[in-house]
Design brief:
By secondary structure, the protein is an alpha/beta fold. The chain folds into two domains: 2-200, no CATH class; 265-491, Rossmann fold (3-Layer(aba) Sandwich). The chain is built from 16 helices and 14 strands. It has helices spanning 2-15, 19-43, 53-80, 85-96, 98-115, 122-152, 155-175, 183-198, 266-277, 293-300, 312-321, 334-340, 365-374, 396-406, 477-480, 482-503; strands spanning 212-220, 223-233, 239-247, 250-256, 259-263, 283-287, 304-309, 329-331, 345-350, 375-388, 410-414, 423-430, 440-441, 450-451. The strands form three sheets. Strands 8-7-6-9-10-12-11 form a seven-stranded mixed sheet, with helices on both faces. A five-stranded antiparallel sheet has the order 1-2-3-4-5, with helices on both faces. A two-stranded antiparallel sheet has the order 13-14. The chain starts with a helix and ends with a helix.
Amino acid sequence: MVTELAGAKLLTPFFGASLYSWASTLSITLLALMAGYYFGGYVTTKPRFSSSDKIVWVFLLSGLLVLLMPFLGHFIMQRTISFSFFVGLVLSQLFFLFFPIFLMGMISPMIIFQVTKKAELSGRSAGNIYAISTSGGILFTMIFGFVIIPDYGISMPVKLLGLAVCALALIFLLKEKLTVKKVPLALALILITAAVSFNQASPGSFSPLAKTTMLNYSEGLLGELKVMDQVGFSPNGEPVTIRKLKVNNIQQNYVFTKMPTQSLLYYVNFTKQLVKFAPRKQTGLLIGLGAGSLFKILYDQGIQVETVEIDRRIYDIGIKYFEMPEHFCTITDGRYFINVTKKKYDLIILDVIIGESVPGQLITLESFKRLGELLNPGGTLIIEHGGVNSFAGNAFVPSIAKTLNAAGFQVSIFNPLLSDQFGDVMFMATKEKFDVSKYTVQPDVLIKAGPLSSYVLSLDNFDTADAVVLTDDNNKIDMLLKSHYLEVRKGIRKELAKMKSTSGNF
């Protein structure tokens, strides 16, 4: 189970964390277990595999492959990133995930063969073996999922786990008198594999592109997180340094390095305008912290802001690299927070839809109804959907609008780019109709001055025919966003392939 979890997380910087990545991981895991169970049962019919030491050797080989997983995964995904999404996704996992789980699958039937002395006891033996195996999987999955991965990332814990499995196999071999002569071979294999694995360069140890400096690299709950400074040029040709925050290679925010609180994202700066127009704004709730740019906007307007972020690293990076003011931030899932909080707010902002990172549990009828309950009379809910490549054929945006309407909100939709084809989509939801004709947008970074009504985006630009009300029980977000997911990852794969061709690595 830990290997499966690690396999899914290793994918995220290259192929993302969408439903399709998890479906591939589960399918490859089940395929490997099926093949392992069958082959493990088959080899027990062969005399050369009838001794118990063969189980230890299979156990050792599985540990060696787990130890190599980060290295093999990185190696193969550098080469499959230029393939089509689904071919590269499946082929990668067949290479680095299939074989360790296949060997683990072999172990159970081989152990059952050894411990079963009578045919009538086979059922009990099999039940005991699988119960012990499953209980171990539960324990380690919870430890890795709740403690180790959020704090220590993926690569190093997986390497240490593989090393621990190898060490345990070596101890078992030492206890087998007939295999003592083979212990040096096993030790040599472990040392060579460990040398290859631990000598793998961290993605944070080199610059991914020329004129780029990696400031921070870590692995954790959300996956791979990078902060980097990159030299570019302003429209008048002057060199400028841009600081970027990326999660699984998807850009979350970017700013001028000399002005780390000034976001260069359209929706962030347009939100600054919308907040000014909100009827009430003494208290606010921000779900999704990013690099802290939105928090700084609310903070500067004198709003008492409470923030929620699922990954502690995001908060720490906002403080260290983007000059976000220090404050108390609740580290938890946003849906859990709104379900348990007793507070009410004048303003709630959901800044959670960037690229393929869409927490479906927050974009449902039940969630919107709960958010409505948390708003004071005259309160405002703002939701962003960043980086939509094409409005035509997009049924997700009208589905959000339809779901907000079903939850009792009046909805205004804006595009900060003043385009009816692509860009960021902003939802402003209120219980009473918001009169856009009363307000004028002031000039700001990336934002042009003009009447707010000129920024209004019509749902006619989207696929309203396939729009649905999103509910907890029938949440079709992954299907509605399928083309968006694939387009986002296509762009990232092209960028990674370019980085590979220019620098030889990522």
